Amino acid sequence: MNKPSDLQRDGSMSRRQLLQWAGFAGVAGILPGGCASETAEQNTSPSFDQSIARFPEKVPMHMINDRAPQLETPRAYFAEDLTPNEAFFVRWHLQPIPTKVDLKTWRLKIGGHIDKPLALSMDELRKMEPTELVAVCQCSGNSRKFFEPRVPGGQWADGAMGNARWKGVSVRDLLQRAGVKAGAVDTTFNGLDTGPLPATPDFIKSLEIEHALQPDVIVAYEMNGKPLPLLNGFPVRLVVPGWYATYWVKSLWEINVLPEKYTGYWMAKAYHVPDNADGSEQPDDHAKKKIPISLMNVRSLWVNPNPEAAMVRVPAGKPVPLEGIAFDAGAGIKQVEFSADGGKTWTASALEADLGRYSFRRWRANWTPVQRGSYRLLVRATNNQGETQPMQSKWNTGGYMRNVIEEVTVEVS
């Protein structure tokens, strides 16, 4: 099915238009404060080289790519439990992307193997029973920059993720309203982005019908209490909590129920990982069998001290506040521990407010270094199913699912 033609949308953007869209700035002085310890002296210039750009409705962000836009959230924003809309990461696959959507003509169409095709306006969606939850949206290739050997793809550091409160209508309620016929197998989701050529595979993702009917899978029209920014999927996007963001289709306009397995490119070929417990393979021995990526693994990351700082100095004998975030696919975080001796011993941190099983879980601790010198601080999370993070990095050809125990070096003087 063709994309809607009655929407007020701009055509393909030229590179010059995109650069006009994005106001470039230097790295220094644009990141928000409030993250650094009062007892720590940190050089906050990133230790990796990235362009900084400002796109509409966004603060200055690390730019991975401009066509299609890929913008990374600066780490300082992870000091907030909910990532602000204006700092939430951006990842589109196809260019051109929608630059205008007229809600007077936009409709969410539901068709396929159903009893009653629907074309719902925003007003009609908002009149349905709302569903609201807090969930992490994380790109499959988050932290790809750190894979060794390097792999192709967007070279994200750790900011291809965000945590938001999503409000919308459950896909289950929409499908029940349309009436799913017996024998349904898959449900597909299509957004408004289009490819540069007719032969470009449309960005369509699918969920098995049983998954689509789970109550937490929603079509979201609000993000942190406001309409979605255009770059994050206005007017609605799919929210698949616990699953990587490749399934979180932006600017959604079409849902189809199928009586057979969907075999489009973005499910059959793209975003595949080795079919084993940790999605890993060897650089010189690639996996013979791969499957579509799905559930996120357990992760914890540093916010303070900032591992992107060129140097972190702290005084000996004084408490150093440690802070970070942890999350998983929805089992929930059981504990987060840190180590100051390379992983020989671990100390539990304190977990802060639980915003829901799909949300960031903030952790805090204090560490008092006694002796001067260089320390390598490690952090690891364990979820309620006993899953934890590996000491050694796993590798795959896609640069997906990184969840190694993260570290930050601190100089004690």
Walk me through the topology.
Layout: H1 15-21, E1 23-24, E2 41-46, E3 51-54, E4 61-66, E5 69-72, E6 90-91, E7 108-112, E8 118-120, H2 122-127, E9 131-138, E10 161-170, H3 171-178, E11 186-191, E12 204-208, H4 209-212, E13 218-223, E14 226-227, E15 237-239, E16 252-258, H5 265-268, E17 272-274, E18 290-292, E19 299-304, E20 309-314, E21 320-327, E22 333-339, E23 347-348, E24 350-351, E25 361-367, E26 373-383, E27 406-412
Parallel strand pairs: 7-16, 20-27
Antiparallel strand pairs: 1-3, 2-20, 3-4, 4-5, 5-6, 7-8, 9-10, 10-13, 11-12, 11-16, 13-14, 13-15, 17-18, 19-21, 21-25, 22-23, 22-26, 24-25, 26-27
Structural class determined from secondary elements: mainly beta
Q: Overall 3D geometry?
A: globular
Overall pLDDT, averaged? 90
What is the strand content? 25-35%
User: Strand tally, please?
Assistant: 27
Q: Over all CA atoms, what is the radius of gyration?
A: 22 Å
Q: Supply the number of helical segments.
A: 5
Residue ranges: pLDDT <50 for 5 or more in a row? 5-49
Strand order of the largest sheet: 2-20-27-26-22-23
- Tell me the major beta sheet: 6 strands, mixed
| Measured distance between first and last alpha carbons | 65 Å
Helix amount, in percent?
Answer: under 10%
